Amino acid sequence: MAESTNPFNVPMFFHTILFAYQKKLRDLLGTGEAIFVHPILDTIHNVDKMSALHIIRGNNLDEIFENYSKDVMASQVVKKAFFEKLGDNKYVFHVEGCNFANPTHDLLKPRDVICPLALVAMSIFQVTAGKKVQITESEFTSDGCKTSISAKPDI
């Protein structure tokens, strides 16, 4: 078997596919695509439990988010990841220097999707806070994003 002369970045490719998938769902279903987000967040948690990744580590949400940020940075996927606390159960997740942003953010111009790393943070929030997360889109920059994470208002 010949050695590949064109290896490609598989994680970045999957990241781009996830964005494309989210965008197409939004194009086809409009805001109705949001019905899929909470079940996806539950699935992320189930995968974490079954695979023993231990994404949720800490004594409270602030500590768990801090550990998640450190894990993401240790993976060397991003230069900086952190949570800005705005109030009780209200945060903004910041990602800077993301290796997957280029060319994905400029190519797909994501405006109506959620960063995959933020989806994991939303899953952590739901499990730890015991409340459904408010569905929101990420705001993207050329090398990262910011995503609001808070509890869904009681109706």
In short:
With 155 residues, the protein is an alpha+beta fold. The protein has 5 helices and 4 strands, in the order H-H-H-E-E-H-H-E-E.
Features of the shown structure:
46% helix, globular, 155 residues, 15% strand, 4-stranded antiparallel beta sheet, alpha+beta
The biggest sheet, with number of strands, parallel, antiparallel or mixed sense and barrel status, is:
4 strands, antiparallel
H/E element sequence: HHHEEHHEE
Approximate strand percentage: 5-15%
With strands numbered from the N-terminus, the spatial order across the biggest sheet is 1-2-4-3
* Low-pLDDT residue spans: none
Averaging pLDDT over every residue, what do you get?
A: 87
DSSP E strands, number: 4
**Can you count the helices?**
5
Radius of gyration: 16 Å
Helix content class: 40-55%
First-to-last CA distance: 60 Å
- Which secondary-structure class do the elements indicate? alpha+beta
* Principal-axis shape: globular
Topology, please?
Blueprint: H1 10-29, H2 37-51, H3 61-74, E1 80-87, E2 90-96, H4 101-108, H5 116-129, E3 139-140, E4 145-150
Antiparallel strand pairs: 1-2, 2-4, 3-4
Helix pairs in contact: 2-5, 3-5
